[in-house]
C-alpha cells in the first residue's frame, strides 16, 4: 500500500497566518480608538481651562470706530380731516435721527504684548494691547438727505466706538479733538435700538458702545478738517480685530508673539516674523472695501470687513498627539508585516499571542505620549515614548526570534518609522507629499524583500 502525503493543516499555512494577523490588526483598532477618545477628552478639558482663563483675563478684542455721530431733526406732517366740518388739520411731528461719519484718514499703531498662563497641565496665550489712532474727519455733508442746516443739532455731536470685551479695557479711553481732550464712557445706546449691531466672530459677550460727551461740531470744524488722536488699551486673548473705516486706513502692529495668524478680509501688505516677534503693516483705501464713509439712521454691520490677527498656540500637544494616532494603523500594520516577513524568510514560528503582545506595546506608545507630553513638550514625549516602545519590542523580539540579527533590524526599522511619522507631523504644507513618497519607498522595500519568497511552501 502506497504512503499518501498528509494534507497540510490550513491553520499552519501562510494564508491563515496572514488572515489572523490582519484580523488582529483590525481588532487593535478598538483600543486605538479609545486612545483617540482620551486625547479628545483631554483636549476638550484644555479648551475649558483656556476658556476659563480667558474669561477672567479678557476675551478677543474687536474695534469698530471712532465714528462721528451727529443728530438731526426730521419734521413729518400728517393731515387729518374732520368728517363733520371737512376741516383739514396739519400736525407736525419732530423726530431725532442720527448721521454717522467715518474718518477720512485713520492711522493706527498697535502694540500687543503676550504672555503664557499655565494652569495644571494647560496653557493659554494672553495679551495686553495698546492702541493709538490718529486722523481726521472732513466737514460732514448732509446734502444726500436734503437736510437743512437749521435741522442739524451740531452742538450734540459725539464720537462713538463699537467694541466688545469692555471688561478687558484698561484705564481711560480718551480722544483728543483739535486739542481738547474727551473721555469715553460706556453706553447701551445702539445695541438696544439696533443703532450699532456688530456680530463678533467668537464670544458674543460684553458687547458695548463707548461714547464721548456732547460737543459742538460746527465750532470744532470751523471750516477745516477735524483732527483727532484716540487711545485705548485692552487685556485680551485669542484675537485682535479692527474694522478699517478710514477712507485711507493704515495700521502697524508689533508684538512679541512668534506665530501670528493673519485672518479676516485683509492681510498685511508687509510683515516680518522672527522667532520671538512680528511686525505687520496694513494699507487699506475706500476702494478696497464695499462700504461708504457716511450713514444715516443706522450703522451697518462691518465685522466681516475687519483685519484680524490670531494670538493662539499654533499646534497644541493634543493636536499633534491626535495626528500621531491617525498613523497608528500604519505603524501596527507595518510592524506586523516586518515580523511576518522575518518569520517567512527564517522559518521561525511566531504565535498569534506574540503578535498581540507586540500590538499592545505599539498601542502603549500613544498613552505614554499623551501622559508625558502633558508634563513636558510633544518632542520630549514623542522621543521618550518611542524609545521605550522600541526597546521593549526589541528585547521581546530577541526571545521570539532566537538571535540578535533580526531584533537589531526590527529596532532600526521601528526607530526609522517613528522618526518618519514625527517628521510628517511637524510638516504642514509638505506633509502629504513627504508621506506619500515615504509610503511608496516602504512599499518598494517590502516588494523587494518578499520577491523570492515561495508562498506555496511557506508554513510560518
UniProtKB/TrEMBL annotation:
The chain crosses the membrane at residues 14-35, 327-346, 352-373, 380-400, 406-425, 430-450. Keywords: Membrane, Transmembrane, Transmembrane helix. InterPro entries: Uncharacterised_IM_CreD. It holds the Pfam family CreD. This is Cell envelope integrity protein CreD. It comes from Flavobacterium litorale.
Amino acid at each position: 500500500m502506497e504512503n499518501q502525503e498528509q494534507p497540510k493543516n490550513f491553520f499552519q499555512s501562510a494564508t491563515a497566518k496572514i488572515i489572523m494577523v490582519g484580523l488582529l490588526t483590525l481588532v487593535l483598532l478598538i483600543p486605538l480608538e479609545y486612545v483617540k477618545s482620551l486625547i479628545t477628552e483631554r483636549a476638550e478639558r484644555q479648551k475649558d481651562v483656556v476658556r476659563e482663563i480667558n474669561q477672567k483675563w479678557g476675551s478677543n478684542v474687536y474695534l469698530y470706530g471712532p465714528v462721528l455721530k451727529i443728530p438731526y431733526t426730521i419734521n413729518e406732517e400728517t393731515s387729518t380731516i374732520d368728517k363733520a366740518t371737512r376741516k383739514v388739520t396739519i400736525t407736525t411731528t419732530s423726530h431725532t435721527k442720527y448721521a454717522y461719519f467715518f474718518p477720512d484718514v485713520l492711522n493706527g499703531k498697535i502694540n500687543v504684548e503676550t504672555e503664557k498662563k499655565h494652569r495644571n497641565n494647560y496653557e493659554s496665550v494672553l495679551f495686553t494691547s495698546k492702541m493709538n489712532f490718529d486722523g481726521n474727519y472732513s466737514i460732514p455733508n448732509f446734502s444726500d438727505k436734503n437736510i437743512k442746516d437749521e435741522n442739524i443739532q451740531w452742538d450734540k455731536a459725539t464720537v462713538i466706538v463699537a467694541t466688545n470685551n469692555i471688561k478687558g479695557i484698561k484705564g481711560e479711553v480718551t480722544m483728543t479733538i483739535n486739542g481738547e481732550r474727551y473721555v469715553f464712557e460706556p453706553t447701551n445706546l445702539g445695541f438696544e435700538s439696533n443703532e450699532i449691531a456688530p456680530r463678533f466672530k467668537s464670544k458674543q459677550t460684553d458687547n458695548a458702545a463707548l461714547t464721548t460727551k456732547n460737543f459742538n461740531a460746527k465750532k470744532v470744524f470751523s471750516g477745516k478738517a477735524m483732527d483727532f488722536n484716540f487711545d485705548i488699551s485692552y487685556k485680551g486673548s485669542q484675537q485682535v480685530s479692527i474694522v478699517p473705516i478710514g477712507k485711507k486706513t493704515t495700521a502697524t502692529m508689533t508684538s512679541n508673539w512668534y506665530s501670528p495668524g493673519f485672518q479676516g478680509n485683509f492681510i498685511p501688505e508687509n510683515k516680518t516674523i522672527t522667532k520671538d516677534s512680528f511686525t505687520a503693516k496694513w494699507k487699506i483705501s475706500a476702494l478696497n472695501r464695499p462700504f461708504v464713509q457716511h450713514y444715516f439712521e443706522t450703522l451697518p454691520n462691518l465685522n466681516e470687513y475687519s483685519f484680524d490677527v490670531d494670538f493662539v498656540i499654533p499646534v497644541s500637544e493634543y493636536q499633534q498627539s491626535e495626528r500621531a494616532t491617525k498613523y497608528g494603523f500604519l505603524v501596527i500594520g507595518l510592524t506586523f508585516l516586518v515580523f511576518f516577513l522575518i518569520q517567512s524568510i527564517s522559518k521561525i514560528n511566531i504565535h498569534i499571542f506574540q503578535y498581540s503582545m507586540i500590538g499592545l506595546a505599539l498601542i502603549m506608545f500613544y498613552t505614554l505620549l499623551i501622559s508625558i507630553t502633558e508634563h513636558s513638550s510633544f518632542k520630549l514625549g514623542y522621543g521618550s515614548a518611542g524609545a521605550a516602545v522600541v526597546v521593549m519590542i526589541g528585547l521581546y523580539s530577541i526571545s521570539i526570534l532566537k538571535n540578535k540579527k533580526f531584533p537589531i533590524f526590527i529596532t532600526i526599522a521601528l526607530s526609522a518609522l517613528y522618526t518618519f511619522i514625527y517628521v510628517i507631523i511637524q510638516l504642514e504644507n509638505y506633509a502629504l507629499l513627504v508621506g506619500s513618497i515615504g509610503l511608496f519607498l516602504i512599499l518598494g522595500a517590502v516588494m523587494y524583500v518578499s520577491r523570492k519568497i515561495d508562498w506555496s511552501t511557506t508554513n510560518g
